[in-house]
User: Fold Fe-S cluster assembly protein SufD from Deinococcus lacus.
Amino acid sequence: MTKFTEILTQQQGPEWLTAKRQQGLDLFTSLEVPTEGVEAWKYTRVDVDFDALRPHPKREAITDKAKLPASVQKRLQSTDAGAFLVLDGPDVVYRTELPAELTAKGVIFTDLKTAVEQHADKVQQYLYSVVPAEVPDDTTIAAPGTTPSKSPDPSEGKFSALAAALWTNGAFVYVPRGVEVELPLGSFRVMSEAGTYTATRTLVVCEDNAQVTFIDEQDSEELPNTYAIGAVELVVKAGARLRYVSIQNWGKGVTHIQRQRGDVERDGTLNSLVVTMGGTLSRTEMQSYLRGQGADSEMLALYFASEDQHFDHYTLQHHAAAHAHSDLLYKGVNSDTSVGVFSGMIKVDLNAQKTDAYQKHRTLMLSSEARNFSVPQLEINANDVRCSHGSTTGPVDQEALFFLRSRGIHKELAEKMLVTAFLEDVLSRVPLQSVVKYIEGIIAEKVGAA
Assistant:
């Protein structure tokens, strides 16, 4: 019996969930750790001793909010979330409940472990449906005029399989047909012990014409040799609107590996924002699968890598139906000896005529020793589409810097202003002012230290 098999046997749950976990573990065992020889991991190497990994210890619930980590307390003071969960490692340590009027309408917001017990029918229907426990077969791509049953993904791999097998908790959101949730819902994930790992899973389901915003935040102190792996499944049914925000601000020493995928049906809209600021190594995969005609995906991201941080973003805009639209804008800053990687693909299936897809990645380099690799790609199998992609990498505009300094602004403040302005066109597209203010604060700290 292997170490992870033993851990899996300790996980409790229904038979269907145990079977899915076993599929994930079987896949994990069969695969090698991705290396530079794998195209999707060409510029990123994760050195991990799986035998040395140990689960993050369990944590008890906290009734006094003042006992939460200082960073979480600070965020809770400024958040406008209608309800939120706080998870320390594998356990929910603090929560607030949904307003009664939303519960009466059938909205569900709880941790995933509780959802498996109390809402088994809904969880079983959707869990692993967007980020599967096994590698999807390319033959599931349907013939022209029909709807594919799955979204094939060339980067399915060892870490995603491990997360599928060993996840301990996460968030579950379910919004019934036609219900609109005005205030955001939120999850704050922290880790508090070095040398451990956590595996989490988030599942958000918006039924037909429903609407919700979910904010997923990760934060910790410095934690050497610590791993955070996970998956996010976003189900957007016909005419629904989902806004998903991920803010990763782990402490130094944390390796973050997470796959986030949205499945968008006819006339559905998925707006996503990925913010990467923390950890020593971060690999985030954000993918949108536009299943139905008229589906719309907006994919935004900001990252600021400093010191020796290594940030890797892998994106996929997969158009499987006609008349769908996607727009990707990723902006990053590299300082010191940091490394930034962007690999983005627009994939258009044979029957996805009238596709309208855009992809733009721009990087600002604050140091001659920093490195950035950008690989925008197109795979077009339809002949009546409008697709474009582009990437630019360059230093701070010296003329703009000179203009500011000639007005009496010292160099450090001038650079801070230019960095903020560079990232502003992403933030200006986010209608969540408390989130924007928080991100601007992190950026200010980063610029000050750069």
